[in-house]
From TrEMBL:
Keywords: Iron, Iron-sulfur, Metal-binding. The keyword Metal-binding applies. The keyword Heme does not apply. Signal peptide: none annotated. It comes from Nostoc flagelliforme FACHB-838. SUPFAM superfamilies: alpha-helical ferredoxin, SCP-like. It comes from the Bacteria. Gene3D superfamilies: 3.30.70.20, SCP2 sterol-binding domain (3.30.1050.10). It holds the Pfam family SCP2. This is SCP2 sterol-binding domain-containing protein. Residues 185-214 form the 4Fe-4S ferredoxin-type domain.
């Protein structure tokens, strides 16, 4: 490297640099860093060390994205409550997108300021865009919610949103990775702002939130994210399978086509965020609820329940029965969620997310999977008491054993391979009752 010593840029850097390596290596003053984040637009901020147990599950992914990470800066930006509560989806969606853009811009400016001071930092996206080459696996770089909880910015409510003690759940989250340590780190707050009032439960149009704390990811994903990812894939396949314009219009009406166009031309639109809208938690939010609970329900929750709208759900899912029972006035459209794993690990990753617990009633079964071919692995799936457990090896005594060529299994899941033909060719082999395999499939409609 000595050949660069006389290069003008090298000489100028060494002559003019004011960066002191020992200063960079020392912890950053937490008050200075906090003030910087607030001055640049964050409404609250906290700091988490990379080795914190609460974020251990994503530590490796973070270090792959930014190897020198020592500290995670978590911050929140407030949204306007009445916009989020609006029945008009355009108003609520613009609020989400506008605040989301602010989060990304604030993170960008914080990183730029740190960089000017010789401190390396990186700001992953607040939400979209994400790493779609990994879809339908883990497409995000940082899981913002557990970082925010570890940073003392709130706790998760039963609706799976972070509730800030002051701002409630009307917030969006950002995370910044920096190479430096700070002089003091935050700890989780000692209470959960969630009131457990269950208003999010009764407001959800697809029954994704259980009163017992259960969350049906598939129901939320299929409806709320209809114009994202899997829902978009399902729409494209409707186009591909249509024999004519008339045939297409029998599958997708004009309003749906226009909405897809809007999502493509502007930004993807959420079909619902009623769990956020109905939540009364947080010091700045709770007053309206405490003054008159009946009026709060009448003005905030009831309109969301009474709204006439199209609900997107997978046939055979828990959501299908829920909507028919709770919201008979809402129009139902049966769709695919478009989730088709492209790897065996993706298949196993997705099982807990797609599991429909009410379709598993009566099952007490251990499934042993052995995958051969391109992806070799073993796995155990235990379905019992309306719960699911996944293990990356064979454990227990299996009630049914499935041995499958990995490529053939993925084709079967994508409905590109007939299982009877796969059984005849012994690409899939089953030891046990086929009834148990049928019961397994019923738990994961897609």
């Amino acid at each position: 490297m000595s050949k660069f010593d006389n290069h003008p840029t090298v000489r100028q850097y060494r002559e003019q640099s004011t960066i002191n390596d020992s200063t960079i290596a020392s912890p950053l003053d937490v008050d200075w860093l906090r003030s910087l984040c607030l001055e640049l637009g964050a409404d609250d901020v906290g700091f988490v060390e990379i080795d914190r147990p609460e974020i251990a599950a994503q530590r490796q992914d973070i270090l792959v994205a930014f190897p020198p990470t020592k500290t995670l800066v978590s911050f929140v930006c407030r949204m306007n409550r009445e916009n989020v509560r609006s029945l008009e989806r355009s108003i609520a969606n613009v609020e989400f997108h506008t605040t989301g853009d602010e989060v990304n811009q604030i993170a960008h400016e914080i990183v730029a300021t740190l960089e000017q001071k010789g401190i390396r930092a990186l700001n992953p996206a607040m939400s979209f865009p994400m790493e779609m080459d990994r879809f339908p696996g883990k497409i995000w770089v940082v899981s913002h919610k557990p970082v925010a909880v570890a940073a003392g910015l709130g706790h998760m409510g039963i609706h799976r949103n972070v509730i800030h003690p002051k701002f409630g759940n009307f917030i969006l989250l950002g995370t910044i990775l920096i190479e430096a340590e700070v002089t003091k780190y935050n700890r989780p707050i000692d209470y959960n702002p969630c009131l457990e009032c269950k208003l999010c439960v009764v407001a959800c149009p697809v029954g994704a939130i259980g009163g017992d704390g259960h969350f049906n990811f598939s129901a939320c994903y299929t409806h709320n994210y209809r114009e994202f990812m899997g829902g978009f894939t399902d729409w494209v396949e409707d186009i591909a399978e249509s024999k004519s314009a008339h045939d297409y219009r029998q599958k997708v009406n004009g309003s749906e086509s226009a909405s897809m166009w809007q999502s493509l031309a502007f930004k993807s639109n959420y079909k619902a965020a009623y769990c956020v809208a109905a939540c009364p938690a947080g010091e700045d939010v709770i007053g309206q609820f405490l003054r008159n609970k009946k009026v709060f329900v009448k003005e905030v929750v009831r309109p969301l329940q009474d709204k006439k709208e199209t609900i997107y759900l997978v046939p055979g899912s828990d959501a299908q029965n829920y909507v028919a029972r709770r919201f008979p006035h809402k129009k139902v459209k049966q769709v695919s969620n478009g989730i088709r794993p492209n790897s065996i690990q993706g298949f196993l990753f997705g099982l807990p997310l797609l599991f429909q617990r009410n379709q598993s009633v009566g099952l007490d079964t251990i499934y042993h999977f052995t995958f051969t071919g391109k992806e070799k692995c073993q796995a155990t799936v235990i379905i019992k008491d309306k719960t699911i457990q996944i293990e990356n090896s064979h454990i227990g005594t299996a009630d049914i054993q499935i041995t499958a060529d990995s490529h053939t299994w993925l084709q079967f899941l994508a409905k590109e391979q007939n299982i009877v033909w796969a059984l005849i060719r012994r690409k899939i082999r089953i030891r046990g009752s086929l009834r148990l395999l049928q019961a397994f499939g019923k738990c994961f409609p897609s």
